[in-house]
């Protein structure tokens, strides 16, 4: 089960922050004022704003760009979701119904998350892999390990919600689904920020989860947190330096170093080496970011036990179904 759980986690880690397809528009002053006032942003008449001919397709991206190096505020989240939901809704009645449906779906999602954390053994993927992280938490012998597994379980559950969430909350209208995904995006950002801060302190005090001393899943869990620390590139670079000798010593999965190497390179605007990081280029089509050496990439992947790039690319296409 750990091997399958790891495969799912690796797939999610291969989705780098996507670039916008076009330069987003400027945020109008009336919306800027709402960004710091969650109650006002929630109460704003988005359907009336839509009727003015505003660019509801580009403005949510513009809101995101305001906060690219941090998490959205509650006001920005309300703005982004309201604008996106208004784009999907044909009328005010549907807009309000979508808001109610999304709130009910979020309650079902939270109840399911609590059930998993309580020990429910979900038999179906991808959430069976989340249950396996909670089993790791139960078998851990130290508080440090238990907290590590709890955090990565929450990380993976929330990320799997983007693709498999409807299995839990049911089918939703486009507007309600847009709202649910907005809730998940903000949660992911908060989880990543909290996990980065916790892992920094943990590793500074205790060192790495070497596979000679811990279950291999512990090292993989810590690596996942680093992989998702994109808003702290200095920390990712520091961890890359730490992991390189550990990979040579066999104290981590060698491929974990390779994935992080690519992540750091792509986040810094450089070509990657192993082809692990990419983006959706069209519906159902994933492609790797620029490569250092396209002719040697497969040999480099083989050296780090990463498998075929062609097979990896084919597997990643599924994560671009909603592009």
Automatic annotation (TrEMBL):
It comes from Brevundimonas alba. This is DUF4034 domain-containing protein. The lineage of its organism: Bacteria, Pseudomonadati, Pseudomonadota, Alphaproteobacteria, Caulobacterales. Keywords: Signal. It comes from the Bacteria. Residues 1-21 form the signal peptide. InterPro entries: DUF6624.
């Amino acid at each position: 089960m750990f091997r399958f759980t790891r495969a799912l986690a690796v797939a999610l880690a291969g989705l780098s922050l996507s670039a916008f397809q076009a330069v987003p528009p400027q945020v109008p002053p009336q919306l800027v004022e709402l960004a710091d006032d969650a109650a006002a942003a929630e109460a704003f008449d988005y359907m009336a704003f839509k009727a003015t001919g505003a660019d509801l397709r580009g403005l949510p991206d513009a809101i995101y760009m305001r906060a690219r190096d941090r998490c959205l505020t509650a006001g920005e989240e309300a703005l982004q979701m309201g604008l996106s939901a208004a784009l999907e809704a044909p009328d005010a009645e549907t807009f309000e119904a979508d808001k109610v449906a999304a709130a009910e779906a979020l309650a079902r999602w939270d109840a399911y998350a609590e059930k998993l954390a309580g020990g429910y053994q979900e038999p179906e993927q991808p959430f069976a892999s989340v249950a396996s992280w909670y089993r790791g938490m139960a078998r851990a012998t130290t508080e440090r390990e238990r907290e590590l597994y709890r955090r990565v379980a929450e990380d993976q559950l929330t990320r799997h919600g983007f693709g498999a969430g409807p299995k839990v909350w049911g089918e939703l209208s486009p507007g309600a689904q847009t709202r649910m995904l907005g809730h998940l995006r903000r949660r992911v950002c908060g989880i990543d920020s909290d996990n980065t801060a916790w892992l920094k302190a943990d590793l500074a005090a205790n060192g790495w989860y070497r596979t000679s001393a811990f279950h291999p899943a512990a090292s993989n869990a810590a690596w996942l947190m680093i992989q998702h620390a994109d808003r702290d590139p200095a920390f990712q670079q520091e961890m890359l330096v730490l992991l390189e000798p550990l990979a040579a010593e066999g104290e981590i999965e060698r491929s974990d170093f390779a994935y992080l190497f690519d992540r750091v390179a792509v986040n810094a605007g450089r070509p990657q080496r192993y082809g692990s990081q990419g983006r959706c280029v069209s519906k159902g089509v994933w492609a790797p970011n620029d490569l250092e050496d396209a002719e040697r990439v497969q040999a480099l992947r083989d050296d780090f036990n990463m498998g075929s790039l062609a097979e990896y690319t084919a597997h990643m296409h599924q994560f671009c179904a909603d592009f």
